[in-house]
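Complex 337.
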Amino acid sequence: MLTLALESSCDETAAAIVKDGREVMANIVASQIDIHSRFGGVVPELAARKHVEAINVVVAEALATANTPLSEIEGIVVTRGPGLIGALLVGLSFAKALAIGRQLPLVGVHHIEGHILAPLLERRVEFPFLALAVSGGHTHLYRVDGIGHYQILGRTLDDAAGEAFDKIAKLLGLGYPGGVLIDQLAAQGNPAAIDFPRPILHRDNLDFSFSGMKTAVRNYVEKQGMPATDDQLADLAASFQAAVVEVLCHKSRRALHKTGLQRMVVAGGVACNSGLRDGMRQLAAELQVEIIFPAPQFCGDNAAMLAVAGDYYLENGQHSPLEINAVANWPLDRLNL
Ligand code: KG4
Ligand code: ZN
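Predicted structure with KG4 bound:
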């Protein structure tokens, strides 16, 4: 089945053409970073307005890249939630219009379901597996027993890991989005230079907390002043990143122990982080388990990742009715809303 997938949950307008939920023929992402960076974060109304301008452009580009006329598309996949409601409604309304106009089946997919199934675009991954979803809005551990079967094992009690990266970058005047900028700086710094706290690291659960870490960095900067040299800035970035990575790896280790699972997927924008990739590689070697990362183009927000679940649901006749609405807050273990 040839599907057209659409994503507009936050600040990327994306369209993809995917064959059989596996073969990516086009994966177009239009980023709004330039628009939001001067505000230091995503402005929801601006995001929605920019999606309206960009969505038909990315769809046309995806069809052209895949060298596929719209008449050959057999199903429409779209992010239904979670995300910014105005932003989600643009993709969902466009998807409905295409479905009606072309008489095609439509399916609304959970954004995080897209992220954690993204590795299946590139390779086989046997179920069950553990998934760590780390993005701007999520830091969750899931047990994945199959497409559509997810159990939440742990979650952040406050900020998401990506949000923490973005807030620290903003505090340091680095710009938005901050994750990739901190990652680059951290590569030049000493991760042991500053001993930032690792909140709830030793609590016997699979939850996370990042807001205390953010406060610790803010207090450090207030006390010591802003880093005066490039070396000091790099040390601060490296020390902060090391604290985040240690927490993510430690809780993942605990989850692997608790569940006995032998495979793990790390997905979402923060899965691009080089410190996290190194830490998880060490964990995989230590525990003799397989830890899988999507390719970078499938880590951050994109539409191709949605087609894995989308294709599966459409092939199983699980279409969404045209009455479906967008869902801003949507736990992954409550897919049947
Ligand atoms: O999955 P994503 O593109 O969007 C959401 O669903 O939120 O994730 C975006 C998040 C942002 O917070 C961004 O700063 C973070 O992923 N991010 C990174 C890196 N690249 C993106 N964080 C740390 N290191 C990176 N290299
Ligand atoms: Zn995302």
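The mean pLDDT is 97.
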